[in-house]
Design goal:
single chain; 296 residues; mainly beta; Beta-galactosidase, Chain A, domain 5; 1 helix
Length: 296
């Protein structure tokens, strides 16, 4: 475990998976992250690379060869990640291609993820360098889970999500058996900017948004006001999810998406896939801003 702190916040990151596992107030010790109860969902904030979600038939095709990449990729739970840099306000972790990873993902890459703490805001930045002599294809994203409710005098239904703009948005239905995107949609909000949280909201898995105009969503309490905000300027897709009846909500910025059930398995044609030329570096960041009134 590695930590950063200032006069407002302390964060802790597990070297395995470079997984953020704590954001808490220095003064009052309030923790804003889910506790990763293994009986419900044993993760805090997995990092997603080089795929997001499920793959059709559990593999991809690159140059007509199959490669079996795990759901959400191979960064989460990866014990080969190393700490590359630590300063007063930043932790940088690194995962580089190796012989075993090349068997399931045939690109030479250097993946870095940086956690920078400034005042009441944590910025999570992804840096992906293509070390290969061919174009590299990938997706990348976050999966942070926030405690909900945060305070003992509240219920889950006292909380809601608020977008920065009014939205008319549909979520894409997942094939529940295989976790693949279908063409079916259902309405979530119409000319509104809030989604009330309730335990049955995720009975059919994650809410998946492809075309929101907002690049900020806040977790708010009817009793305590704004709790935190996630800003995701570099991410066009957004997932919102929790296990049914669980006291957390994941706000997930994505560059990429699970396979469509009719996808032809060609990784280069996957929806939302990113491509990076040899020797180039890709960068994308999101931030978590804790409301200062909860830190005193």
């Amino acid at each position: 475990m590695y930590s950063l702190q200032n006069n407002l916040l302390k964060i802790t990151v597990n070297q395995t998976g470079a997984e953020l596992c704590d954001i808490s107030s220095i003064k009052n010790k309030t923790n804003f992250m889910w506790d990763a109860n293994p009986d419900i969902w044993g993760s805090f904030a997995p990092n997603l690379f080089p795929v997001i979600g499920s793959l059709k038939n559990d593999h991809i095709l690159i140059d007509n060869k199959p490669y079996a990449i795990p759901k959400h990729g191979f960064v989460r739970r990866n014990s080969d990640i190393t700490l590359e840099k630590q300063s007063d306000d930043e932790l940088v972790f690194n995962l580089k291609y190796n012989t075993e990873l090349l068997k399931i993902y045939p690109y030479k890459f250097d993946f870095k993820i940086a956690f920078k703490l400034q005042d009441n805001t944590l910025t999570v930045s992804h840096y992906i360098e293509n070390l290969d002599n061919k174009t590299m294809y990938f997706s990348v994203g976050g999966h942070p889970a926030f405690k909900c409710p945060v305070f003992k005098d509240e219920a889950y239904t006292d909380y809601y999500l608020e977008f920065e703009h009014e939205e008319t948005a549909e979520s894409y239905v997942l094939n529940m058996e295989k976790g693949l995107i279908t063409d079916q949609t259902f309405s979530i909000i119409s000319n509104q900017n809030t989604i009330p949280l309730r335990y049955d909201l995720f009975n059919n898995d994650a809410l998946i948004f492809k075309a929101l105009s907002s690049r900020k969503v806040s977790l708010k309490s009817k009793n305590h006001g704004n709790i935190l905000a996630v800003r995701y300027p570099d991410f066009p897709y957004l997932g919102i999810w929790a296990k049914p009846n669980a006291n957390y909500v994941c706000i997930e910025p994505w560059l990429g998406i699970a396979d469509h059930e009719n996808h032809n398995l060609d990784f280069t044609q996957k929806e939302g896939i990113q491509q990076l030329a040899p020797s180039k570096v890709f960068q994308a960041s999101y931030s978590i801003e804790i409301d200062p009134k909860h830190l005193v």
